[in-house]
Amino acid sequence: MDVARTEAADAELVRMIEHRSRKGEVDRDEFEPFYMESVRRYNDRRREEMRAAWCEYHQGQAARHRAVLELLIARHEGEAAKLMDVQPEGTEELGSAEAPQTEVARGTGEGEVGS
User: Fold this and answer.
1) Which of 21, 57, 94, 102 registers the highest number of CB atoms within 10 A of its CB?
2) Over pLDDT 90: what percentage of the chain?
3) Per-residue model confidence as pLDDT tens digits over 2-27
4) Residue 109 neighbours by CB under 8 Å, 6+ apart
5) Where are the domains of the chain?
């Protein structure tokens, strides 16, 4: 009787092991409670680290964009000021018949993008 019971138990164990190896899954109910708690803490810590990393990334991007845009705004304001200074005297600011000659129009190369 004990031999038959042992063989049945062995057969059941072999069946379970083969089933798991084919599926690659483990029943969550079979995990120890302290292991599950450890997994939960790890996932919480990892989630917080990722949240902090993304927050830092977005703050850095905002700062970089702000710096670039402020420089770009200043450059365009400077270019506009130069163009206002080049305009010949006596012409109206808006709607004049002849466009003012700029450094770019004169071919000096000043005022071109990237200079």
Assistant:
1) 102
2) 40
3) 888 888 888 888 888 887 776 666 66
4) 103, 115
5) 10-83
